[in-house]
Fold each of these.
Amino acid sequence: MADSRDKQPVDLVIADKSPLVQSAMASLFGGDQRFHLVAVCADGERFVEAVDRLSFSVGVIGWDMPYLSGRGVLEALRERAGNPRIVVYSGNAGRDVPLQVMQLGGAGFCSKSEPPERLLEIVLAVAEGRMVFPFIDVQRAADDPLAGLTAREHQLLASLAGGRTNAQIAAEMDISLNTVKFHLKNLYGKLTVHNRAQAVACYLKARGTEAF
């Protein structure tokens, strides 16, 4: 049997909004001969550019990133062939995030609350073709189209169902109008609808209520 040290190192690119996390991951992977760190990116847009320019087998990305989020990265790569396998490494406490990563074609999820060694294990497993996720109630997700929404998205959807305008929602949630539009775009994508009327109809149906 060949020694594991004879295996080719896993080529990977990492992306995270925090310089501290970038540095920590660079040290973690750079100090382990099982990995070859190809590049470090500060946001999702630069990561997608790295996919176009560089050859690597695994990407480790954050979920909440500027310019293009982890969700945006997965959506951008979803229809493209030959992409690296993606592990989302996130401190986002939303229980729905691993489910979203799986639904969008990600290969693994690791919480930043886990020991660093766990991230190494997950990346190695993903490089071998496996998928690694915490427990996900897939049946619940299939039965409830709202199961994958964050708390803020539930609040946003309830406001839509209440007939509130974007400006009213912005005032209620103390966010900008552009941020409301950004959240609505993500919300429509998760519900696979195209406008607020369809989103409200989905909400009412899930709640067992008919629209008037």
Note: The chain is about 45% helix and 15% strand.
Amino acid sequence: MRIMGLDYGAKTVGVAISDELLITAQPIETVRRERENKLRRTYARIEELIIKYEVSLIVIGFPKNLNNTEGSRCERTKEFGDTLERRTGLEVVYWDERLTTVAADAVLEEGGVKRERRKEYIDKLAASLILQGYLDRR
């Protein structure tokens, strides 16, 4: 049994997977798409990863505003999560993701990754931070 963490964005979805003991989260990949509303291939790729890693639960970062209100990004994230739950039959849990992208950028900067290369890693690292927060809270 593993848990999948997702960082859902306008054109990307960062993906992370837990280890089998549910202790650590590892970034796996970033699923990219041309336009925000073109999700068919995104869902299909996530479903492939669910099968490959034998995922039993999905945690999606929930992008609340800093003042704890829910904006339009939260609504789109819920729509994405609801569809994913229907397609996979797996439970979807929403996890407060405020500032995870900022934290991921800081980790990459500290690791010496050049600014122009960070875009390549930031979403899957943010997914990993979201999932790790969930795992630590369990």
Note: The helical segments are 40-53, 72-88, 100-110, 115-137.
